[in-house]
Amino acid sequence: MCGIIGITGRDDAVDGVVNGLRRLEYRGYDSAGAVINDGRELRVVKRAGKLGELVKALGDTPLSASTALGHTRWATHGAPNDRNAHPHLDPSGRVAVVHNGIIENYQELRASLGDGVRFASDTDSEVVAHLVADELDRTQDADLFTAVRTVLARLKGAYSLCFVAVDDPTTLVVAKYEAPLIVAHADGVGYCASDVAALIEHTTEVAALLDGQVARISPDGIEVTDVDGASVEPHRYTVDWDLSAAEKQGYDHFMLKEIHEQPQAVADTLLDRLNAPAPGQPARLTLDELRIDEGEFGRIDKVFILACGTSLHAGMVGKLAIEHWAGIPVDVEVASEFRYRDPIVDPHTLVIAISQSGETIDTIAAASHARDQRAPVIAISNVVGSTLAREADGVLYTHAGPEVAVASTKAFTTQIVACLLLGLYLAQARGRLYTSEVSDTLGRLEQIPAALEQVLELDGQIRELAERYKDVDYTMFIGRHAGLPIAMEGALKLKEISYLHAEAFPAGEMKHGPIALIEDGSLVVALAPAGHVFPKMVSNIQEVRARGASVLAIGTEGSTEELKAHADDVLTLPEPPHELAGPVLSVVPLQLFSYHVATARGEDVDQPRNLAKTVTVE
Ligand code: F6R
Q1: pLDDT tens, position by position, 27-79
Q2: Quick one: which atom of ligand 1 is closest to the CA of 409?
Q3: For residue 10, what are the CA distances in angstroms to 6, 184, 186, 225, 261?
Q4: Which fold has domain 257-446?
Q5: Which has the closest alpha carbon to 172: 197, 149, 196, 145?
Q6: 343 touches ligand 1 (CB under 6 Å)
Q7: Are domains 257-446 and 456-600 of this chain identical in fold?
Q8: pTM to 2 decimals?
Q9: What CATH number matches the domain at 3-239, 3.40.1190.10, 3.60.20.10, 1.10.260.40, 2.60.40.10?
Q10: Domain 456-600 is in which class?
């Protein structure tokens, strides 16, 4: 989705903005632009396409000033072309704005300006620059900060907005409502950005604005108020990511680097989870932040897991873990559906909201829908201080470090691990497992990183398979039990970065329809670890093979000998240290397979078409 970076107080503000935009590229975008304020005029350069186009255009029109603002746009209203790219100016060129989110009443606001007003774009955002400029014209002594606050009262929708005005050359004014915005001040320079990735090269001390907050940023510091002008506190925190974590470090793509970071990411997520409440007491599993009484978990009679995309697939593994260990019924639901129906939720329902970014609007809204009905909410998020983490009653962080590739990999495996921890935590809180059983199971989970290292050694073999199957017309992923979420994740990964047609089904459902799609030349990827559903998977493999499909089976040491008799290709994984940890291992060959298919097809792996990393619009 769109990205924002603003800098004031540095001679090379334009270069800083371009670097910041580069760090925001991962969010997904289709045009980019920048404005500089040199106190005489606002100069805007913007281009459709990749950041390179903007950099080329900036080279043709060198701009220098100590205040600059940049934006990457992911089109919602209006085609992805030069004129719809941000920043947008008012007709007199006095005010410029960049915007993430959607102004829902933009047509009404445009109409309120009268018939004679010309708009230079088809966007919902431009009208906000017109309104602020009008407000400055109308109120002779108003400054940009005051004018923005007045205009905010008229906006409906979601926004993070950043403004510059020619009369105020060292000021950025920003506002936030339901779209993230971070501000920071370091060494006499003021910054704003849509996420911390753009700021960590400058500072790790940041503040997230809360909904309804407005800030004036200058080289002297940051002032934050509500829309009425009363002074308020943003959420201040320290970012624990370092710059190297947000760089490729010799890998061709962020996705490949992040796949290889999984052993460490999982180890970090498992680290220091056992704490003794008092000296001499047995160590108990703990969450990172808990703002509800642990005793409340004894009264929970139902769990909803809410998430989108890859995070939803992690939630499906979470369901198996919570039902197995804690004995509570669990529903897993797409967040965007949950919020628009009438789910039966009460104070005895626990809601677990999973989001890597913690900024996915559907997940945040679904969680708040549940909180309105007094259900406690626990967030699983990778981003400290994210909106979801702040608003939840408890948080379990996945310590995956920054995930830059659009296709989620290490966030997924750490989300599964967090779900396993949560399953054990609930079992402990409800007295379903002894503390010793919890710590024994945790000890087994701690073997996952070493097993992941072994799985990564299959990379060469997977690359060869990808070469062979890269032009296949149709791929079906099948699995049962803990293999099903991984089949779904494998299909999602393949389609999102290689654009090949891929679907996933519970293996037992195939005969009820999907098997009609199988023909000569189809590929079926079958999740077939040793275990209680293995014999059923073998039958399903035989069924698709009999109809002409090639079968790539993902087995474990205990299942591969038999698989070799039925599948065209078999990848052998180590036996997982616990059956429920199996998905953490079995997804990795599918991530690598998608990666190698996409690179063999020459696709842009880290920034696939039409997709955005953080989905802040509905
Ligand atoms: C796919 C992918 C997406 C995200 C989804 C939710 O690789 O990354 O499906 O999982 O957009 O994002 P978060 O977890 O940030 O809420």
Answers
A1: 778 899 999 998 889 999 999 998 999 999 988 776 778 899 999 988 888 88
A2: 7
A3: 11, 14, 11, 25, 35
A4: Rossmann fold (3.40.50)
A5: 145
A6: no
A7: yes
A8: 0.82
A9: 3.60.20.10
A10: alpha beta
